[in-house]
Amino acid sequence: MRTVNSFIGSPVQRVEDLRFLRGRGQYIDDLVRPNQLNAAILRSSVAHGRIRSIDTKAASAIPGVQRVITAKDIGPKVPTIVIRLQPLPQLEPFQQPVIAHDKVRYVGEPLAVVLAESFAIAEDALEHIAVDIEPLPAVADRAASASNKSLLFEAHGTNLAITYDVVLGNADQAFKDAPYTRREKFRVDRHAAVPMEPRGLLAEWDAAKGKLTVNGAAKVAFFNRRILAGQIGLPEDSIDMIENDVGGGFGARGEFYPEDFLIPFAARLVGRPVKWTEDRRENLLSLQHARDAECDIEIACKADGTILGLRGHTVTDMGAYVRTNGLVGPRNMVQFMNGPYHIPNIKLQSHLQFSNKTPSGTYRGPGRYETDFFRERLFDLVARDLNLDRVEFRRRNLIAKEQMPYHCPSIAPYPQVTEYDSGDYASAFARCLKEFDWAKKAELQGKLIDGRYHGIAVGCFIEGGAAGPKETAKFVIEADGSFTLSVGSSAIGQGLETVFAQIAADALEVPLDKVRVFHGSTNLLREGFGSYHSRAVVMGGSAILSTAETLRAEMRKTAAQRFGCAASDVTIAEDRVTGPAGKSMKFAELAGLSADGEFANHHHTYAYGTHAGHVAVDARTGHVELVDYVAVEDVGRIMNPLTLKGQVIGAVVQGLGGTFLENFVYDENGQLLAGSFADYLLPTASDFPVIRSFLMEEQPSPINPLGAKGAGEGGIIPVGGVIANAVASALSSLDVQPRGLPLSPSRLWDLIQAARQHASRAAE
Amino acid sequence: MKPAPLSSQFEVNGKPVKVTLSPRTTLADCLRHELRLTGTHIGCEHGVCGACTVIVNGEAVRSCLMLAVQAEGAKVTTVEGLSRDDDLTPLQAAFRKHGALQCGFCTPGMITTAHALLSEEPDCDAARVREVLSGNLCRCTGYIPIVEAVLEARAAYRKSKG
What we know:
The structure holds 2 protein chains of 2 kinds.
Chain A: H1 17-20, E1 37-43, E2 49-55, H2 57-60, E3 65-69, H3 71-74, E4 103-104, E5 110-116, H4 119-126, E6 130-135, H5 142-147, E7 160-168, H6 171-177, E8 180-191, E9 200-206, E10 211-217, H7 221-232, E11 239-243, H8 258-270, E12 274-277, H9 280-286, E13 290-301, E14 307-317, H10 328-335, E15 345-353, H11 368-385, H12 390-397, E16 406-407, E17 411-412, E18 419-420, H13 425-436, H14 438-441, E19 448-449, E20 452-465, E21 470-477, E22 483-487, H15 496-508, E23 515-519, H16 536-563, E24 571-573, E25 576-578, E26 584-586, E27 594-600, E28 605-618, E29 623-634, H17 641-660, E30 692-696, H18 719-730, E31 740-741, H19 745-763
Parallel strand pairs in A: 1-12, 8-31, 10-11, 14-15, 22-23, 29-30
Antiparallel strand pairs in A: 1-5, 2-4, 2-6, 3-5, 7-15, 7-17, 8-13, 9-10, 9-12, 13-14, 16-18, 19-20, 20-28, 21-22, 21-27, 24-25, 25-26, 28-29
Chain B: E1 6-12, E2 15-21, H1 27-34, E3 53-56, E4 59-62, E5 75-77, H2 90-98, H3 107-120, H4 126-133, H5 144-161
Parallel strand pairs in B: 1-5
Antiparallel strand pairs in B: 1-2, 3-4, 3-5
Helix pairs in contact in B: 2-5, 3-5, 4-5
């Protein structure tokens, strides 16, 4: 008897690991082509200035240098990079040109490309390019940006790119009538995705076929092909974008950057393969930054803690241009500031300001990480004011199961509406408190034990996922009876091949190793939509289900013709199709059969959960030890608990990096002071040894056949708020109230000193 | 003036190699680009991330901080040299079981570093594993599953030592 497959939900070990663990992955820098040229990019060392001249003569004369490319070689009109997500016509003037031609607006902006016979020669030649830039005053922070004394885009007349508006109910009236209000300012500094693999590209131009092939694509290859085709003047189907193994994405890798034009352009110009690999300094200067926002917000509550209203504004430092997904964070920050809580009256504005820094874009939990910190910090201050238990305050305001689907506030000027699809937020909250053992740990709050103050905190979050419009899939039966699955989703290190093989094997009722998954590249399918906004499982997985159904119908039909029976009399199982009277055929005999399919959907999924943390603070040094951390998330339906837990814990640690360590510090001239891993600190193996992840699947999503919700980002979202509240709880006797991240030891030490001085002054 | 190329002979994964290259070539670039052993990854080129870690005469070494010519006469082992065709080694199998890798980019450096540690100290405790691995950056896993995997793999190294 055959058993029904149940790979979905099982902790299946990853198929990718077999090559990664043996050094057999194939990342972009592992590729090499005969006759290849190597590219190096000259980047602006000036944050803001007008280009007077770029002299490439000396560099071009170096033996081994084939060509030096500047804006002049690209044409009278230098292409810009379109905004991929939530574009608006009024923001088009702020799109980044693929190479600087009149002004430079950040340190790291490309000025010239050297093509040479080796990387070493190309890099050496950079020093021989003479660049004359007339410096302009740098806009190095939000205050300088808002002053408009120095403008990035003079014709625009202001450094304010746009203001978003969120309005729900009547916030001003709610505040007028409210018995209690509190206003606060909070800030999250600049940090970013920083995947371990630097970017790279290998572009080849086949003049005879008129074909451009670009290896090194990631995340959204089809969309990037469309951008490149428009910029370079080729039909889309004359370009193949190939996805190799990708060493981490987290929102940043795979977006369209200037190099994604420059390297293919160079290959076509010189008619030789051109390869480029960035070094870490380039990576930290060039890959989109994130966060860098502050808020001034006010909350209104009843005396019992019921929230009546939320109003105020946020200001995000966007850097120098509006990048492909640069609008997502500042939008999420205000549209989802209420998170999983019911707030009937909301009036928020999000101001997007330019500065002479690396342009911003998404990083895991974009906008949500910042806004959760703002909101949860505010909540703990409110609970203290109202003399309410912090747990009770949250429980009272969580959106109830009966309120699902819950309409979210919309955000002007966008017409789209969204709603939380399903959820029992109180259930995940209760589970977290139980696993954390809140009742017992609550006794520790503020206690000084062995020289360190202990504190705990809890915070809730929602995670958006499943961006539309659709995803595509294709199955082919191979000569050996196995199944080849191609999907438009992309692998960025999240274990997509394994999870998709699980979904496909369940849908086809075949062994897991009979499915081979190919993904991302534009030569696999007519169209594809990629991996972002935690969409791969929901959108790609659902496309696999519907395509498998089509394939099975085809298999039955074909077998029925050969068996001379009705299609409904054919069964599919193990390695064969079986008809009546003992007739059967192995899958191999159906080789060549194929099916295309897709899943279209405009609704989003909203996974949700609660985190709790326990810290011990050394008030003499400002050092914080994370004693315990519990992450609970309901993701609708779990595909693979092994990979999901891995992603949750990894995301929590990234969140801890942003909370304690990571900060792209700039000086007043717009120079990045953290351009290496010695200055930009990532968490290490010895920093955070205890993180416990608990997964739930009580509330499947009603918007897709898997019941799944996007789940890769949730782990990072509440971390900053939980940790800052735990630190405040630990230091409650000193009344230390963190209002900014990262909460580095030196900053916390400063807060402790200020609180002590304040207390001693008060005592006098 | 460009300095003249230098020749260097050493052993990589048990096989003698002879390379002639610019003296400034790092061991990492030599392994990847001259010898085409691309399992060794380059993540920072300033010795912080550990992705390029290889084993030189038994010690875990950042191949981006060592010149290829300095390997003269040495025994170099890369992740390819710690792998088998038929199956995963116990250390690799433990990584897979615990979900100790996601994107896989830092993984070769983790494997070589852990192998060097466990070969010398098969009885090391969690704190020691964390201390040694703190020189290798991973952006995906949060390290917890990596530490679990290395602790589990200790048994195999004890056996092979005994």
